[in-house]
Every structure is written in C-alpha cells, then in structure tokens.
User: Fold these one by one.
Assistant:
Number 1:
Amino acid sequence: MSATLDNDRLCQRLPDAPTIVSEGRAFPVERRYQPLATHLRFDEAVAMATAELLRNENGSLLLFLPGVGEIQRVHEHLASRVGSDVLLCPLYGALSLEAQRKAIVPAPAGMRKVVLATNIAETSLTIEGIRLVVDSAQERVARFDARTGLTRLVTQRISQASMTQRAGRAGRLAPGICLHLLAKEQAERAAAQSDPEILHSDLSGLLMEVFAVGMSRSGIAFLAGQAAGGESSGRPPFIIDVRRAGGRAVKRAGPENGGNG
C-alpha cells in the first residue's frame, strides 16, 4: 500500500474488507536532514542545497517543491549552478504532455536530469534514472473556509508519511539518497499522517445533490460522519447554511409524499 495511507484507520472503517499484503521491491535509501540557510530566500536556498548534492553524488535528481511559482524560481537559480550535462525539467499538471514526457523519460546518454516537481510525483509515477531526492518538506493544498465560502491555497509542512513516500522515490531502481530540507527534530514533530482532503474541501455542491435526490436524514448523517472521520467533534465543511450556498432545499415528491418517485 501507499506509505501515505493510514492502513490501521482504514481497516477500522472497513472491518469486513480483506487485507492483502504485497511486498514490492525497494532499495535502501539514505535519509539526510539539512535545514535551509536562513540568510537566503527559500528559492535560492533550495537551489544551493540541490546543486551541492549534485556535485557530491551521481545520478539524476527529483526535487519536490510546493507549487509552480517555486518551480520556476528555483529553476532560474539552478540554471547558473549546474553544468551543461544537467537537464532541468519542470513537472506539474498544467504542463503540456510533451513537457511532462520529457521529465519522465530517461536522460540522454552522458546527461543527468533534475526534475522539479510538485507532489504530482509523490505517488503517481516512477521517473527513470532517479537515485537522488531533495524534499522541500512543503506542499500547497486547497483549504475551504466555511465562514467565508471561499477556497484558498495554503503552503504547509508535509506529514511524516509524505516524507517517507518522497524518500522512497530515490530507491525505486537502485540504492539512493533523500535530502530533507529541515532539521531531523522538525521532521519528527511533523504530523504522522496528512488530513483527509474531504475535511478541507468545498462540498456544497455535494450537499445540493444530496438534498435533490431526497437522501434520508440518516443517510446525510452517515455521510457527515464519514467526512468528519467518524469523530463527533467539529463538523465537516459541507454542513453549512444552505442559503449562504446560494440555493434552497427542495423537498422531493416521492411515494411517501404523494408523488411518483
């Protein structure tokens, strides 16, 4: 299973589901920790740490950054710090298919590659030739604010599970090295698991559909419990004032209400 999945919690939620364990091949990964230089801007400090690792180690490198802006700025700083034998390849969802393919395929003979990626490269693909990983330990996530009805992007520290997942990208094809750009003590204090995305998403559209199809109160309560992770404290973001969502609840005419369903 994915390193970012809380297997124990999933089994608690689905107690009757069978569990199948398949041990995949993984090479050893040396995990290093190095705080960023405080006198430099984030982008420049990341580029400096990445260039230093490239000078001291062989192989292509995967660099995890929180967003497109950071990828572009670190790309600029790295361009003046690496040799002509190093290809710099951005990788994020908005790129063309051709540009994404360039980042994924092996580097030409005699060349090395640095792939600057968002967390799209954390779980969904394997990049050929990677044996070095630099982890900024940051990610950008969408957070829905039920008070304002708006979704905003927030940059935050990743969980320990995500750090483990990112480190694992260095050991897919050969023994590798992962450099986490924070102190080891900070990494150990990070959350063990990431919050489920459903807890921070705008689900008002789902709420409208639930009302429209005439789901029972017990069904809505069950759905709310799943979104809240089975915990009674707090409420999921789709338990909102329907009027603020710009709509109204309409009682559907079903057989129990004298309708035809």
Number 2:
Amino acid sequence: MLIMLTFALQLVKILYMVQQLYLLDFKQGMPIIEQTKKRKIFCYIPLENMLIGNVRNRITSSNGDWQKLLASTSQPLFRY
C-alpha cells in the first residue's frame, strides 16, 4: 500500500512538472539565461520569434550584444 502511494505521488509530481513546462513554453516563450560576471540576465523569447527563425543562432550571432538581440526579436521580456 505504501509503495502504491509513493508511486502515485511521484506520478503527480511528474504530471505537475510537465504541466509547468507546457505553460512555460506555450504561454511565455522560451526561457534564456545568460550568466555575466555581475548578474544573471534572464529573458523570455516569445514563441512568435521562435517560429520566424532560430533563436539560438540569433543569440550566438549577437556575441553577447544585447542591442543586437533586441533588434532581432520583436518583444523579449527581460528580468534582472
């Protein structure tokens, strides 16, 4: 009985994590984390930009220049 209860609890945890990933990917966009020397820069790239082109190529082509990254995406949301 205890084994079945722990298995059910693990299943609920997995389903909750999948639901959170679904909400993250399809509501807010793709999370991108850039670690700098002083702080961690965290932004969401909306899904409309992911469909237009490859976001990873845009980030690597910007070489850490956030002005170029802003110019290549229509509306990223930054959090510091």
Number 3:
Amino acid sequence: MYGTSQLWVAGRWGRAFADNVSSNWWSLKASRTDPGLARSVNFMSAWEAGAALAGVIGMDEIVAEFIRRTILKIPVAEIGKILRIWNFIPESQLKTINLKQCKENVSQDVVELCKKKRASMKEAAILDIIYHQTCQIKKIWTVYKMTKAPGEEVDLSDMEEFKDSFKKVLQRALKNVHISFRDSEDTAVWIRIAWGTPYMKPNQYKTTYMVYHSQTPFVFISHCRIKKYIPELWQALMTAGNYHKIQQMELRSLYLDSLKAIVFKQYNQDFQTYCLTSLEEENSEVEIVDPRIIHENMKEKERIQRVTRETFGDYVQPRIEFAQYKLETKFKTDPKNGILAEREEPFRCLVKFSSPHLLEALKSLAPAGIADAPLSSLLTCIPHKAMNYFTIREK
C-alpha cells in the first residue's frame, strides 16, 4: 500500500501531467517531492505507474493506450471486421475511419472515437478477447480435463451460473483480478483474466485466456503468466463446473479449433473431405513395359492407399504443428559388447517432429514412398489418444 504522503504527491502531480509523461520524467518529478514514491515507480513504464495509481490518476488514458496497442496487434485486413464484431463504435462512425492509412493513424482514430464514448476497461477487454478469437494462433493452447467425484452425476447448470460462480470464487481468493467473459457461437465461453498483486491493480498485459464448453469436462487455456495463482484458478474452475479434479492433458497446439476437434472427436465431421492424390496419376510419365511389374505396383499402391485411408480417414486432419517423444528406456545391445552394455540407468533422449501441418505430413509419407505402410502407431495415435507429448518407458 502507498503511504498518505505518496498518495498526496500522486494526487498533486499525477492529474496535472498524466497525459504526457515518460517513466524518467515521472521518476524525476516524484523524487523532488517524495523519494519513496520515486523508488516505487522508477522501474515502471509510464502506463504501469498509472495502473499502480489508478485510483488517483483515473483510468481514461490507461484504457486509451490499451485500445491503441490492441489495434496495432490486429492484422490490417481484420481491423474493420473486429471493430464491427466489437459493436462498441457505431457503424456511422466506423465509416469515418480510413482503414487504408498506416496502422498507427488508424489506432489513433479508433482511440479518439472510444474517448468520445468514454470506453472503460470492461469494453477494452472485450475487444482484446475478440482479437484473440479471430487470431487464435498467437498463443499456444493447452488442454485440461476435469473429472467428477466417483458416483457424482453430470451437472446441468447453465453457462450464466458457471460465469457467476467462477467470478465469485476467484475474486474472493484474489483481490486484484479483472475477469471478462464473452460467449462464442459454438456454445463456448471465452474467459480473460488480468492478474494483479495484493498491492497493485490488475496488469492488463499479463493475462490468461480460457475457453470452456458447457456440459463438457474440457477447458483450453493459454499460458498462465502468474503461476503462483494457478491453485486459485483451478479451484474457481472446479467449483463453477462442479468438478472434483483437474488434470493437464499432453496435448498442445497453436490451433485451438484443431484441439477442439481432437478432444470432441469431430475431425471426421467438421473438416472438409480430403482426397488422396493417386500415385498412378503422379507417376503417369514413367513408362514401365513389363506388365507383371505394372500389376505388382498397382497392387502395392492400392494396399498403401487402403492402409492410409483406414489409419487417417478421407478427411483433412486436425492441425497440429509438433509431436514430442521423450524416451526413457534401457539401451538394447549385446551384453558382451558396447560401452552402454552395463549401464543401469535408462537411456534418455528427446525426439521432436515438427511441421506446419504434422498429421497431414504423416498421412502423405506412405503414398509418397517415403515410409512403409502402416506407420508406427506412436505417430498415428495422436488424434485418437488426444496427445502430442509422449513419454516412452520400459514396460
């Protein structure tokens, strides 16, 4: 908590100069009146210092800067779309913004319109959620699964009850936390949490994003910036959803929709049909004279396509960009030979497969003649087991 003299200094100088301050100027001015305040804000940026003294300075400029930074993050082609989804600025005023000018000017125009409507952090947080809903691949999402206690029935409480309970539990445990909700079209709710400390207001740039689907045990969470508050977060989730336990699944990706498709077993329905390219068409220029070889090759191609279809199906695979295998096995070799023959400790190594679209890449290996069919089950089980992190140990 800041002392009385510190708040007096902030009240005297903060309001007069809050609009145009830099961290160095702020520290210098504070040091002339109260060295204690200077030490408190010297390490902060101007906006973080403003957040710390929000009750004295006011939130207007902090909200304006947050909206400006959010607009700067949005791809140019998506700015108009996201602002219309936000629906805070009237359409008639949106038409006055020249979206073809540089993004910095666009952001300033948006901020000016928001100032006229006295936007609060509540509206700014919703804009941030819409940005992350539209540009989901900016964060790595991890899947968590909640479970009921033995014999407990499935809870049928609605989403509004879940939101209310979640917010009450988390705010009861943590004083300075800002929670925002936004429903999506697929019956899910997006939750945005800005974390503070016992002595500072929530930092809107240190946030956690969560996606929860009603009546399901799964929750998708971006990286939690404040690890020490994870127990309180888990407690709020389990209480709101009436669950007994929460556990992290070994499944992560940049592509939230693909994670949903995997855990909800929807990838054979929601993804468009994928047609395997015939190897016969690809190699049509290669002339093989011997009819026996032609027959043998055709049978092998048919077998490969059949096995590939049985393994992966005829649809586009969920988009996963990596799979990691951690090996903890004993080194297999002749007991009489080799420097590792008498080693008791497990042989440890890490193998990682990466691709912009890993499952589609694996699906194409056998038809392309790069690998034998069928592929190892360690590679093909990713969508079925809902895992892309594996630890392989001795049986």
Number 4:
Amino acid sequence: MIKNPSFESESPSPWVTSGDGITILTDPEIARSGQRSAAISFFEVTNSKQRPEVSQPIKGIENDRNYQLELYFTILQGAPSINNVCELKIQLYGGSTFAAVIIQEGVYTPETYYELEFPFGGSQGSSTDLEVIVSCQKDPPQELKVAVDDFRIVEQPLEDNGK
C-alpha cells in the first residue's frame, strides 16, 4: 500500500514534502536498510513555528479491516530537554493525529533506529493520506534531526470477539 517505503527511488515520489526542514537524503550510512544508497526523510527542526512534513496518499484500505502501520525512526542530532516537548506525529484520515512519539533528551539513543507499530481500522474508506510530522512546543536549544525509514502497512486478522 505504501509506495517507495524506504525512499529508495531516485525521486521521493509519491512522497510529498512540505514545510521548512525536509530533505530526502541519499546516504547508506544513515539509512536503516537498502542495497544501495538509500534516501530517507530527514527532519530538521530549529524553531517551534516549523512543521516539516512528509506525506503520501495511501490506497487499498478496506472498511471493516484491521491494519498495522510500521515504520522506523532515529534521532540523528539533538533532543529537547524535559521542558520542551517535541513530537514525531503520524496522521491519517484528514489530519487527525493517529499516533505521536515524544522526543526528549535521554529517551532514545542517537543514531539507533526504533520500530514503531500502530494498529488502526479501515473505517474511513479506501484511501487516506499518511502524514509524518515533527513539531516542537518551543524552539529547541540545538537543531533536532529525526530520520524515518522503512514504512509498511500490514493487514491484521480480524478478532471474532468470542462469536
């Protein structure tokens, strides 16, 4: 369902980038996976007004089915203190926040990829936009760089709820 999930093609298409601070990198040292120089989405947040985003339309989601979105992220540089909340947000279905990860100092080991898994139901129709956003409540003390890679949506078995 997700096209170019590891940003491997020469063009980021069908991913769309918006806002200041988005770069698609070609660097196998930073990429989580890939047989060649993989490109990944790279968020650079330097102030609280920024809302860098990468998104793409997702088709093939069926009503009354369960799915799981899986992706990996890493902090490449910086992490805000406990007094400043920065988030990696995942949005579906017209911008409602589907999941968020708080990025704070001491929580994640830099340059280590972490897997995120978010279950969701196909209750909104057969298509939606997948949006990935990094935002901070206050200006971070240093540039925050977050990378994402290896997206996928997996259909999950329906639970019979005892029937």
